[in-house]
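Title: Comparing notes on inverse folding

I've been comparing how different people in this forum approach sequence design from structure. To keep things fair, I'm posting one structure and asking everyone to reply with a full sequence. Here's the target:
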């Protein structure tokens, strides 16, 4: 018969080992809890805020800077803005930037962006996103050949606000030939919004462009809200912007002819300097300027077609008939 017996000494050793294991476990748990409490700031719970801008859902809302600006900032001391009311951005299509600093002192305090042989609408689409210029009340998109000796920006904006204009332009010197009669400066009013002396074939509707609700793309000014709409309407591949002025009325509340107008008290001179067009190439016997002008007309037709087709597709999706809202010049 086999007999199994346990040594008294072995039994005491096992009990001692058990107590040691238990004590070690209790110490480890206690130490872990204390260590965890000491480093709670390192525990980052998952953040997911669906209402944040797309792509920023993982950020706490308080740190999000969803808009920017073009204010110049000092890179030493306390950040300061260079201009209290205006930021000037010059788009250089000829690659010449440093020469401006030599001739004009103010050029040293403006922003220069240079990409050769690109128009202002190309620049606007890429550098003036509505979230970039959201802190500005008004955005001016002006050509380079404008005389401003009779223009004061502060007084101009006073008239814009006084007359409730969302889209505007200064009147043009009446002594210079104007493409559209509505843009000519008038002597008897502060602001005008309609033109009754345009060619009859151009104005089948007195409340539609180019006899009302119209400014030329030469020197337009936009409110912040109007610009947000216009920026989305600028096409990436249509750089001249022809035809855009006939569609600007879509970016203000109706009746558009009351929100768009010409400021007569502040006026400019269109100097008609053939600058950008001359930088093209002579092709098929056409001068660089004529080639650029042909492209302008082509883009105008393309833009009108896109707007009309997009509008028809929209109303088709609603199963309603397309209203007469074309941008086409009659």
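Reply #1:
Here's my take.
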């Amino acid at each position: 018969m086999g007999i199994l017996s346990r040594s008294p000494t072995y039994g005491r050793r096992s009990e001692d080992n058990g107590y040691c294991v238990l004590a070690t476990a209790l110490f480890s748990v206690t130490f872990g809890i204390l260590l965890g409490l000491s480093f709670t700031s390192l525990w980052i719970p998952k953040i997911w805020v669906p209402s944040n801008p797309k792509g920023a859902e993982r950020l706490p809302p308080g740190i999000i800077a969803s808009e920017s600006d073009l204010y110049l900032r000092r890179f030493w001391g306390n950040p300061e803005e260079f201009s209290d009311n205006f930021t000037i951005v010059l788009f250089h299509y000829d690659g010449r930037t440093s020469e401006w600093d030599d001739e004009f002192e103010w050029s040293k305090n403006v922003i220069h962006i240079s990409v050769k042989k690109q128009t202002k609408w190309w620049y606007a689409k890429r550098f003036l996103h509505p979230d970039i210029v959201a802190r500005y009340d008004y955005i001016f998109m002006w050509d380079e050949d404008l005389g401003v000796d009779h223009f004061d920006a502060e007084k101009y904006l006073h008239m814009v606000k006084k007359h409730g204009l969302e889209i505007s332009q200064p009147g043009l010197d009446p002594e210079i030939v104007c493409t559209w009669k509505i843009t000519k400066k008038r002597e008897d009013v502060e602001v005008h919004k309609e033109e009754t002396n345009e060619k009859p074939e151009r104005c089948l509707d007195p409340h539609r462009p180019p006899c009302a609700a119209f400014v030329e793309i030469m020197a337009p000014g936009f409110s912040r809200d109007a610009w947000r709409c216009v920026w989305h309407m600028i096409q990436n591949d249509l750089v001249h912007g022809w035809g855009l002025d006939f569609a600007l009325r879509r970016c203000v509340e109706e009746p558009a002819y009351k929100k768009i107008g010409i400021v007569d008290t502040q006026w400019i001179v269109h100097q008609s300097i053939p600058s950008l067009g001359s930088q093209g190439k002579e092709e098929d016997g056409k001068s660089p300027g004529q080639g650029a002008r042909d492209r302008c007309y082509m883009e105008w037709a393309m833009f009108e077609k896109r707007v009309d087709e997009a509008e028809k597709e929209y109303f088709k999706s609603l199963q309603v008939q397309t209203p007469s809202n074309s941008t086409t010049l009659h």
